[in-house]
Amino acid sequence: MLIFQSLTKTELSDALLPLSEAREERDLARISDDLERKLLLSKIEKKKRKQAEMRAKQLFHWVYQRYVTDYDQMTDIAKDVRSWLKENVRIFRLEETFSKQSDDGTYKFLWKLNDTKTIESVIIPAALKEKIGEEVVEALSDGKRYAGIETDRVGLDRELDSDSWARLTACISSQVGCAMACKFCLTGVQGLDRSLDVHEVVTQVHELRMRAPITNIVFMGMGEPLHNVKNIAKACQILLDEDGMNFSKRKVTVSTSGLVPGIDELYQSTDVSLAISLNASTDEQRSQIMPVNKRWNIDQLLDACRRVPLGGHRRITFEYVMLKDFNDSIEDAHRVARLLKGIPAKVNLIPFNEHPGADFKRPEDETVMRFQRTLLNQGYTTTVRISRGRDILAACGQLRSLFGTARGTEKHRDYGKSAEHA
Ligand code: SAH
Ligand code: SF4
């Protein structure tokens, strides 16, 4: 049995090809001339392929744009095709075991996978329309693309309505746990259980879109996306399909701790945005908190960033988790500025989210702002992410650990120049 959400449109079309028919097939028996036969065969082949492609398109519309999960409701698909689909292609659903909205509107979801393992996704609302100018709303909201959802989505909540928010970011998991063992990260402490399949990644977004008009996707939930790069690259292709969810490449961001070969591989098959968890200003410092740096150091990582084919005015986001008295000095800020020279970069500072048993502390707000000012003065667009959802124990990995088996809900707030809204 195939799973719908694991298929690209081309793969779905290939699977549907044997079901395609062309009227001309009846004429084949009458034709004996070899050349004529060949020509007709190629015409038939072309027609059948076109029909399969058309059906794959229609199915993508039904599932990803109209949220229909029952083939019987797909009235423009031939009956025999529908019964074949019922037998052979399952439309996957994730079981919601827990969801909670915190006071500020951040929504957290815990999903149960088929093997009873759990993962989490988070919806982070940002840019309350009442508070931002019309111009920004226009720049941010994808009114047209989401027009169809208004009436179709379920679990509708005022707080997650596109009337209220210009941006609703879905934070998605790529693995159950993580193998990278970063010292400051709760998921890292837990270790890797397994990587997620393509359909488990795509369906997180699909399920969230049934509940809210998601505008952006970030792979910043559990796991290291590039440690599962084949599945993540394919999931991105599906997320970007114009007949499906139709996300723009600018609105899908893969965040990595620095798996250099994965960066190159990702860009061989997709063209989404990139975030790098830099988190330190020297190799020595970075190796202390991120074992991956011992294999691929900062130079190698930044070289990989320079190879990324970023068209237009896209920039790479450099995330920097701020750890008190460890990487939060002015000297660190100056070194970061030097490292990033020549790379189209913006910086996102993330004050450490404390969790029980952590060796690190969160710096004072003043320290964070000083660090930000230093980078701003060097010409880098720099934003500070402030943690949210503390009332539901929503720091990285904490929800999942609470349930014995999930990840941070955070919001972006600009203290300085606005990068997030660019
Ligand atoms: N594995 C990927 C994506 C998931 S982590 C990566 O590391 O990039 C997403 C972001 O959360 C990373 O930038 C990571 O450095 C940060 N992070 C992890 N634990 C954190 C914590 N306790 N406080 C603040 N940020 C944290
Ligand atoms: Fe894994 Fe990212 Fe956590 Fe490091 S910060 S352990 S790569 S999830």
List the SSEs and their pairings.
Elements: E1 2-3, H1 9-16, H2 34-65, H3 79-88, E2 89-90, E3 95-101, E4 107-112, E5 118-128, H4 134-140, H5 149-152, E6 165-171, E7 175-177, H6 186-190, E8 192-195, H7 198-211, E9 216-219, H8 229-240, E10 252-256, H9 260-269, E11 273-277, H10 283-289, H11 292-295, H12 298-307, E12 316-322, H13 330-339, E13 345-351, H14 365-377, E14 381-387, H15 398-402, E15 410-413
Parallel strand pairs: 1-2, 6-9, 9-10, 10-11, 11-12, 12-13, 13-14
Antiparallel strand pairs: 3-4, 4-5, 5-6, 7-8, 14-15
Helix pairs in contact: 1-2, 7-8, 8-9, 9-12, 13-14
Bound molecules: S-adenosyl-L-homocysteine and iron/sulfur cluster.
Please describe what this structure looks like:
The chain is an alpha/beta fold. The chain has two domains: 2-90, DNA polymerase, domain 1 (Orthogonal Bundle); 95-421, Aldolase class I (TIM Barrel). 36% of the residues lie in helices and 19% in strands. The chain contains 15 helices and 15 strands. The protein has helices spanning 9-16, 34-65, 79-88, 134-140, 149-152, 186-190, 198-211, 229-240, 260-269, 283-289, 292-295, 298-307, 330-339, 365-377, 398-402, and strands at 2-3, 89-90, 95-101, 107-112, 118-128, 165-171, 175-177, 192-195, 216-219, 252-256, 273-277, 316-322, 345-351, 381-387, 410-413. The strands form three sheets. An eleven-stranded mixed sheet has the order 3-4-5-6-9-10-11-12-13-14-15. A two-stranded parallel sheet has the order 1-2. A two-stranded antiparallel sheet has the order 7-8. Strand 9, helix 8 (229-240) and strand 10 (252-256) form a beta-alpha-beta unit. The two termini are 43 Å apart. The model is unreliable at 139-158, 388-399 and 401-422 (pLDDT under 50). Bound molecules: S-adenosyl-L-homocysteine and iron/sulfur cluster.
